[in-house]
Structure formats: structure tokens, C-alpha cells
Amino acid sequence: MSAEDGGGGEGQRCPPCRPSATLLTVVVGGARFSEEKAFLVQSCDYFRALYRSGMKECRQDEIHLQCLHARGFLMALAASRGELPDLDADGIVEAIECAAFLQAAPLARRLVDFIDSDNCLLMYHTAATFGLTDVYRAAALFIRNMYADLRAEARESLTPDLISYVESLTPSAFVAVGAHVTCAEDEAVHAASRTVCRLDETANSWKVLTDLPPEASTSMAGVTVLDNRLYVVGGVHGLHRRVVDSGFCYSVDGDSWSRIPGPAQPRYDLSLVGADGHLYAIGGECERTAMSSVETYDVEAGRWAFAAHLPRPAAGAACAKANGRVFVCLWKPMETTEIYEYVPGSDEWRPVTALIRRQSYGHCMVGHRDDLYVVRNGPSDDFLRCLIDCYNLRSGQWSSLPGHFANSKGSLFTAVVRADSVLTLNRTATQEFAIGGKTWKPRRQMKGFPRSGSVWTFLLRLPR
What we know:
21% of the residues lie in helices and 38% in strands. Strands 23, 24, 25, 26 and 27 form a five-stranded antiparallel sheet that branches. Strands 6-5-4-32 form a four-stranded antiparallel sheet. A four-stranded antiparallel sheet has the order 7-8-11-12, with no helix packed on it. Mean pLDDT is 86; it is low at 1-16 and 407-412.
């Protein structure tokens, strides 16, 4: 009897059973899949609920899922193994249907990462049809971030209710904060610059979003956004450059700051990344010594824990997320770039790739779908050029973007991906490039961030 047949009704329940290491045969659309029960339970809430129900189906060796397509189930298995299944239009529909029915979180996360300007309308409509909430919301926000380009097509292909939800959202704002140190005796002088600012793209001007807390410092701190909250961790403050021992969190909805614990190991010049409910404080320095230690902060639990060390000490390392995965870029003097991925399941930094390229120093790394873009200064005889190399996680191949991107002397180059665009910033200009076909095509130029020193950029969804 299959799981959908409703067997094991009232009065026929068995004691809850624990999935064993034995194999289960799952029949989907005429195809047969043999998988370990424990793997299925870990990957899908459907199987987890089945094996906790005590129904007699949980003791069967074969289950039929008659309402799904075999390819959708195959994609769910691939996503649960950390693979990157490719999707055409039919595959998107089948994958969303499967992710919704099985409550397969790994596949849902993969679908969110797969959203682009070509498939966002299909994914939005399909996710709404099958009630896959995470994909529905992510696709809606993606459409809102590109609404000027997609408005006509959206109004032709979406229902009024779906259009209304998209238009109720605000696009992700481009936000920046410079490096500021707390110094009580000069606080009145520097108060005006101790602000987090957003770019009003309609007025082409920077406006204050919030002031930094008096105890916070963004000098050599880690700055990131997770679940639409801004985090500032570590750094130094005061004339004697004391390490900040607390972290700070800014809530957009409440327009308020709160204090969070600092890492167990005091650190500055660290890299901070947010992913899957955790902050990652990566490397940095303490007492002028570079460190390889890494700590993770569980936002829900409110505590830090040590994770696997980096392969070698690193301060100010370039980090990025792609497909929900965390990557760090370690520079070897002078011409070798190594990329590692943090694997939470095994708590290890796994080598991904290395690149030999002449450069004067590294800038940053950003992720867009299956690609990691490494942005750097050119060789020492032409260090004002910004060169961009792209590493594709699926093919394992490097490519160089054509052309080069001029960088103003004295400015720190930063980049943030929004939908299928990338926003870059220095003191003289904010530039938007459309990402497509392994190229960055200039789209528009806006006002630069008129402050000297280091600057962090990120996206926040602001209330209306």
C-alpha cells in the first residue's frame, strides 16, 4: 500500500518507528529509486513525518508517489546531495511540485538560487500554485528588483493578485557604511559620518538610514546582512584601537539596534558572512597577529561556537555566498588565488580551485547563481584597472570577463549582486552592470559614496 492510499487508519496504527539504514524503494512516475531511509528522512519533511507517524506504511519496503514526476524526485535527491541540477521550464514546474509535496528544503533552497530574469515569472506563478512559500517570496522579490524591465511581461502573464503582491513589495535598497571608530572626545565632530546610508536611486542621492550605536565601530569590523538584518561584529575603537567585544544588530522593521555577544576570540579585520541562520566570523587579527580561527553564531540560539580553522591565517579575506554556500578567497603572495568552501555537515574547509593571475592586490568576491566573480587590481604597472575573473561551480572552469573596469585612486572597490545586476561603488560613482553571458554590461551610473577609507555595501529591504 502506498503512502497516499491512506492505509493505517484509525485503530491500525503501529508504534512510531525509527528509520534504519535499510533501503527504501520509491516508485515515482514509473521510475524506481532505491535510497536509504535515513537519507530520505533527513532530506524531506514528508518522509520525516511518515516515519514518525506510526502508520504501517513506515514499515513497508516500497512506497508509491503517484502524484509526482520522476524528474522532479530525481532533482530533489540531487539537491539533497549538494549537487546542482540544471532546470528547463518543464523541470522547474516538476521540481517546484516535488519540493512542495515532499517539503524538500534542499530542493527549495536550490530553486531560490536558480531564479533569474528568464524564469522568475514562471517560478513565481508555479510556486504560488503549489504553495511553495520560500520560492514564492524569493521570486516575487526578484521580480520587484527588476520590475522596470519585467512590468509589461508580468502584466501579461500573471494574475492581478500576483501582480498586486509584487507591487506591494519594495525593491532591495543599496546600502553603504564607511569605516568609523568610536572616540568619545571627537564624537561630536564625527557624528555626522557615523551613519549607515542608502542610495535613493530615483533622486540619485545618498540618504541616512540609521546612526551607528555609540559603542559600535566599523573600523576593521565584520559587516554583513542576514535575513534582512544588518550585523556589525568585532573591529577596533578608541585612540588605542581596543578590540570591540560586542556585536550589534540593526532591525530594519523596528529601525532599532540591539547588542549581541561578540566572538569568544576577540578579533578585528575579520570577514563576516551570513548564511542559513548563522554568522561566520572568518579569520582576522588579534594583537597584530593574523588568525585562522573561525567562529559561527547561531542567531536563534544566540551563541557562538568554534568551527574548523581556515587552511592558513588570513585577515580581511574576500568571502561570498553562491547557491547558499559560503566561500572564502585566500591570496598567496603574489599571484595565486585559492578558493575554499565551508561545508557545515562535515565542518571543514574544502578546496575548490586555484588561479594564477598577475595582480597588485585583491579586491572582493561576489556570487551570482553558479558563478563566483573575483575582482582584483591589475598588475603593479597598471594597478588602477579592475580585472574580473569568473569561476563556474558547475563546470569547474575559469574565464576572464572582457574589458576592464576603471577604479578611482584611493577608493576601495566593492560589489553587490541584486537580481541579475551587480552594483559597484567607489567615491566617484555607483555603477550598475547587467550580468549576462559571463559579461558585465554597463547599465547606468549613479552618485558615488563621498567618504574616504574602507566601505561596506549590502542590500536591505526597507519598509515603505
